[in-house]
Design goal:
- The structure is a single chain.
- The protein has eleven helices and 13 strands.
- The protein is α/β, with parallel strands linked by helices.
- It has two domains: 179 residues, 3-Layer(aba) Sandwich (Rossmann fold); 136 residues, Rossmann fold, CATH 3.40.50.
- It starts with a strand and ends with a helix.
- The structure holds 6-O-phosphono-beta-D-fructofuranose (F6P).
Amino acid sequence: MMNIGMLTGGGDCPGLNAVIRAVVKRGIQLGHEFTGIKEGWRGLLEKKTMKLDAGSVSGLIHLGGTILGTSRTNPFKNEKDAEQVIRNINELKLDALVCIGGDDTLGVASKLNDKGIKTVGVPKTIDNDLTGTDFTFGFDTAVGIVTESLDRLHSTTESHQRVMVVEVMGRHAGWIAVYGGLAGGADVILIPEQPFDIDDVCKHIQNRRSAGKNFSIVVAAEGATPKAAGMITKEKELDAFGHVRLGGIGEFLANEIEKRLKFESRFVVLGHLQRGGTPTAYDRVLATRFGVKAIELLHEGIYGRMVALQGNKIVDVSLHEATSKLKTVDMEMFRTAQIFFG
Ligand code: F6P
């Protein structure tokens, strides 16, 4: 029997609660018990815990957010915090950790594993940019929200003969922009992987007008970068993992397009709507399969791994490998989306 700690770190994501539920329910069947760590790595630094048993995970599968809370705390920012986390893990008598998070959270899990703490990671991010897994849970929900938003924006944009720039999440990778944009019939998709020229975007919109299409929808990932202006950020300050706060590309682009083409333009920032609320059926199922695999790995004495989806199989990959580089957009996929930029 093990006492297993579980935490959720980084930006929240639909499906986190489904993972927590799956880990605890399957873990209890296997004879283990659980300690919930509140607010990500901050909870391990400050010893903030909560009970996690069959009762506390009941009725969670459809709930967005995370009952454990989350933070962007990085205990490896300084050596003292990292040592404190390891001391607290021992004091709380945790035999192993299930860490549910993206690149940053799992990077910490990987370092702790190197220091002898048994950890297993579960890949979470709406951005779908983790290496080693075809998809992360939360992505499907985010794409669904973008698609529905584009459907709604189409009718109003067409009625007013405007250009609508829709800013979606995606810091380093444009997966949400490509899948959401393709599903929602976007006329231009801009992604962080390919810095773009504003003149090319304008030319494309102008060509559509000349062909009789009096409106255009541009989907821009928040990390999409105009070649001349560089990345658009909200503020210059960095968070604990060294990231700036992005945002503003939608407004910037709408203004530029209006200035250059004299076509009335608007922008919409979908922002945290993409992360909030109830997960899709796909994400609930994926999150549940990930949770079951994570606890079964620990039960078998396997750690230093991240559960992953490859094809339709749930497998495990090394935490090192998964956090060594980001998974950027498959250019073949982007090319398919580009075919429809009519
Ligand atoms: O979850 C990842 C992400 O969606 C990024 O695309 C985005 O830059 C970031 O979260 C913003 O999160 P927050 O506003 O919560 O810091």
